Amino acid sequence: MISGKTSEKVEEYAFGGLVAAIGIFTLVDATTIAARADNAVGPRAFPYAVGALLVVTGVAAIVATARGRLGQAEEGEDVDSGVRTDWVTVGKLVAVLVAHLVLIGLVGWPVAAAVLFFGAAWTLGAVWWRALPIAVVLALVVQVVFAWGLGLSLPAGIFEGVPFLDG
Prior knowledge:
Elements: H1 4-30, H2 45-66, H3 87-107, H4 109-123, H5 128-149
Helix pairs in contact: 1-2, 3-4, 4-5
Organism: Lentzea flava
Protein name: DUF1468 domain-containing protein
Transmembrane segments: 12-33, 45-64, 93-122, 128-150
């Protein structure tokens, strides 16, 4: 039988190893992504960054465990078990997500994303007249970052032909 302290160390080592292994898998898998040679950043940048951070985090967890720094066991969650699930809010969020999925093909990413961002924020209690312009700006920023920064094409939809929105 393994003692409590030894069992905790094994679990911490396993966690660190798993995180590092997922990072290595991500780095290796990112090499299979096809990218144009003319783009400096390209679609591999994000997987490389995430993979590298996962490897560093996993190795750091292993080193910390080897030095005797174990994570603290949680006493319990700070959750009120008497509160019931708000199924109306869950339903609204699901409806907003489904609307987003349907709208991408019909009107393009910028409009669909604006609907998603606005709908989720409004459903969760944001003031509509603040959430709407923020959602529109955020959707356009994501479109521009993907189109120009990463060289990836999100469907422009009704904005097809607008130079800074086409990937």
